[in-house]
Specification:
Number of domains of chain A: 2
CATH class of the largest domain in chain A: Mainly Alpha
CATH topology of the largest domain in chain A: Arc Repressor Mutant, subunit A
Number of helices of chain A: 6
CATH superfamily of the largest domain in chain A: Winged helix-like DNA-binding domain superfamily/Winged helix DNA-binding domain
Bound molecules: manganese (II) ion, zinc ion
Shape of chain A: globular
Order of helices and strands of chain A: HHHHEEEEHEH
Largest interface: A-B, 41 and 41 residues
Largest sheet of chain A: 3 strands, mixed
Oligomer: homodimer
Strand order of the largest sheet of chain A: 4-3-5
CATH architecture of the largest domain in chain A: Orthogonal Bundle
Strand content of chain A: 15-25%
Structural class of chain A: alpha+beta
Low-confidence stretches of chain A: none
DNA sequence: ATATAACTGAAAAACATTATTAATTAGTTT
DNA sequence: AAACTAATTAATAATGTTTTTCAGTTATAT
């Protein structure tokens, strides 16, 4: 696309079609996909892209703060083009990860720094449970 | 130990020396160790224990709510014998994970359920940054 | 246009986790 | 207390995930 290329340039990252396509995928979805899903989508446009390129690229993007990495117990890392702190909810059955919108959350990085002595860069708030589709169908 | 065996029995889990030792390790530390560290410690007492046993046991303990699993971007899962929700801070350099004590946190599972329609079981709050030892020594 | 440093794709390697299985063990029943 | 049985263990293999390596290609600066 067009705006993704501009974002890469602004971060001083060399622009390649693969990188722009990966950033496009992440900017076009609210699904918080993992590397395999990103790979499958970019493949439609670049059939010869390698999974290793996807791994290397998301790592670069995380380092550059173009995307953020979310981690889930017992699943692969998921990626999000919204880089500001915002709460998520993950379904422990189907693996869906969603933003929680219209939800008042206090972000309290400074008090956490004072309580811990750490230099804190990021706050991650993740709720785990069962989504509307899965909570009825829970075996056991 | 003694109390760990009782905890296993109360959960209806068959008591074995390996299981009691693994629970002891987790109840005796505030380090939030991963499987490899747990394995090395239990090995002192049971030199023939297998890493696969540690994997299976922590999975069983998480399912039974004897321990909780914490996940960190770019690291293995870590385990915690304190099962109630409490905030953590992780050092992105040395991998240390600490509890944040004396820290007022509002736990808001019900509002999150209302905002999402999920049945929520667990809330995880993780701060990422650099610990006192590491924040001075950050290269680049 | 040319140069060059960085990037890609492919494959191998490293690392993490799960599955399999024969022998052992915990907890129960005689 | 001995026997029984189902579950657990240790070892290994299998699987899955992520990183490394490297030869060839490409993006950017000159
Ligand atoms: Mn998000
Ligand atoms: Mn803790
Ligand atoms: Zn679901
Ligand atoms: Zn540190």
């Amino acid at each position: 696309m067009y705006h993704s290329e501009k974002m890469l340039r602004e971060k001083g990252i060399k622009v390649t079609p693969q990188r722009a396509a990966i950033l496009d995928v992440l900017r076009d979805t609210r699904e918080h996909p993992g590397v395999e899903v990103i790979y499958q989508r970019v493949k439609k446009q670049f059939p010869s892209i390698s999974l290793a390129t996807v791994y290397k690229t998301v790592e670069l993007f995380v380092r550059s703060n173009l995307i953020q990495e979310l981690c889930l117990t017992g699943d692969v890392s998921r990626y999000d083009a919204r880089v500001e702190s915002h709460p998520h909810v993950a379904c422990m059955n189907c693996g869906k990860v969603e933003d929680i919108d219209n939800f008042d959350m206090e972000y309290i990085i400074e008090p956490a720094e004072q309580a811990t002595g750490y230099k804190i860069l990021k706050e991650e708030i993740m709720y785990f449970g069962y989504c509307g589709d899965c909570k009825g169908v829970m075996d056991n």
